[in-house]
Write a structure and sequence with these properties.
Helix 1 (2-25) packs antiparallel against helix 2 (28-49). The N and C termini lie far apart (55 Å). This protein is globular. The chain has three domains: 1-92, Rna Polymerase Sigma Factor, Chain: A (Orthogonal Bundle); 102-164 and 179-221, no CATH class; 245-407, Tetratricopeptide repeat domain (Serine Threonine Protein Phosphatase 5, Tetratricopeptide repeat). It has helices spanning 2-25, 28-49, 55-74, 77-80, 91-97, 105-113, 120-130, 136-143, 147-164, 176-195, 206-221, 226-240, 265-280, 286-298, 309-320, 326-340, 342-351, 361-373, 377-389, 394-407. It is an all-alpha fold.
């Protein structure tokens, strides 16, 4: 029981504690190491002494003492610990207690970590590691880069913060526009991690419900920022469909096969309002197109209505002009298969960089489906095996295993 509580506390409060330590000592590596030491202490102390009334406060108090011990051992405490700020509140106080500017704690920390001095390709990665608790491997897979490359980006970002003496301060409203791109990128990846498990039972599943709250706060903070409004709409469209994402056996149900009668209509109505507000700002952007793709699906009334593949393909074509990346092209290939046939779709998938997609399960699943539909069963089975070897969530595994079995029934080429 104590171990379970510790796991929950580490996931829920780790970002807050680490960020507060970073604000105090201006050293991200020290903050993370001290928090890890505190968790080790908790694993030993909580079963023996009982669960603390406030796990987050316990972890912060112990981590702070461990950080000071580490600094003493290094013999550089005087150099690393900043002078007290001239006026209260300190950065630490703001980080832990102040909700005056950004009224959601996790969102405040994301804004803090997306400092413009940090390289753009590292801001979201640093935030996902520090605030959201994703592993380096999970973040590397999300960015489609090798794990060592991602680790180097994190090291460089931390070094930049240390060398520049950047304080972890809550930014004022004037600083939000220059950080909003990195903030939205971070939220997108965090939500994708929550959404990738159809059963909503994975380690990061809690982000799904939390993202409804975060995006509502963000839309209120920046009501004239159309990309914020569009991302809030996207999350609502996606969460509206959650009740239909599993079949009676617990396997994932593809979007084209989901029963619209099970979708949560109030969330769809909210999403439509947000997307209209975004369109009314007349400043188009990629997230508005992504939300429009979700809107096209959620406009479907029942299973008798044909899936909106032509509309979806046209929207992906438009999205490529804003965001021409491998994942968008992979998703577009799914629509191409339905509109123009699997042969053309497979040619486009095989044109993509398979090295970058080596550890990306959806790539192998899409490719396997296209190969099976073309009668290339042997290659399809190999692709399904690659997807299954990457350890998908249980609902996705059931669906992949079922499709792999179906591939055996296609005539061999």
């Amino acid at each position: 029981m104590a171990r379970s509580l510790l796991d929950q506390a580490a996931r829920a409060h780790g970002g807050r504690v680490i960020a507060a330590l970073a604000a105090k000592f201006r050293d991200l590596d020290l903050a993370e190491e001290a928090f890890a030491e505190a968790c080790l202490n908790a694993a030993q102390a909580w079963p023996k002494d009982g669960e603390p009334r406030d796990p987050a406060a316990w972890l912060y108090s112990v981590a702070q003492r461990r950080a000071l011990d580490m600094l003493r051992r290094r013999g550089v405490r005087t150099r690393l610990v900043p002078d007290p700020p001239p006026q209260p509140p300190s950065a630490e106080d703001v980080m832990v207690d102040d909700a005056r500017l950004i009224p959601d704690e996790r969102l405040r920390l994301i804004f803090v970590c997306c400092h413009p001095a940090v390289a753009p390709d590292a801001r979201a990665a640093l935030t996902l590691r520090l605030v959201c608790g994703l592993s380096t491997q999970e973040i590397a897979r999300a960015f489609l880069v090798p794990e060592p490359t991602l680790a180097q980006r994190l090291v460089r970002a931390k070094r930049k913060i240390a060398q520049a003496g950047i304080a972890f301060e809550v930014p004022g409203p004037e600083a939000w526009p220059e950080r909003i791109g990195a903030v939205l990128s971070t939220l997108e990846i965090a939500y994708a991690k929550a959404h990738e498990d159809a059963a909503g039972a994975g380690q990061h599943a809690g982000y799904a419900q939390e993202m409804l709250d975060l995006t509502a706060v963000l839309a209120d903070l920046l009501p004239d920022e159309p990309e914020c409004l569009a991302f809030a709409a996207l999350v609502r469209y996606a969460e509206a469909r959650r009740p239909a994402r599993l079949d009676d056996t617990g396997a994932m149900t593809p979007l084209s096969e989901q029963d619209p009668a099970l979708w949560r209509r109030p969330l769809i109505v909210d999403a439509e309002k947000l997307l209209r507000r975004a369109a009314g700002r007349r400043r188009p952007g990629p997230r508005q197109l992504q939300a429009a793709i979700h809107a096209a699906w959620c406009a479907r009334a029942d299973l008798d209505e044909p899936p909106p593949w032509p509309t979806v393909l046209a929207l992906y074509d438009a999205l490529l002009r804003w965001r021409d990346d491998a994942v968008v092209r992979l998703n577009r290939a799914v629509a191409v298969a339905e509109v123009s046939g699997p042969a053309l779709a497979l040619a486009e998938v095989d044109w993509l960089d398979s090295t970058a997609f080596r550890d990306f399960g959806p790539f192998h699943a899409v490719r396997a489906d296209l190969l099976a539909r073309l009668g290339r069963s042997g290659e399809a089975l190999e692709a399904y095996d690659r997807a299954l070897a990457l350890g998908p969530a249980p609902a996705e595994r059931l669906w992949l295993e079922r499709r792999r079995g179906d591939a055996l029934n296609f005539p061999l080429s």
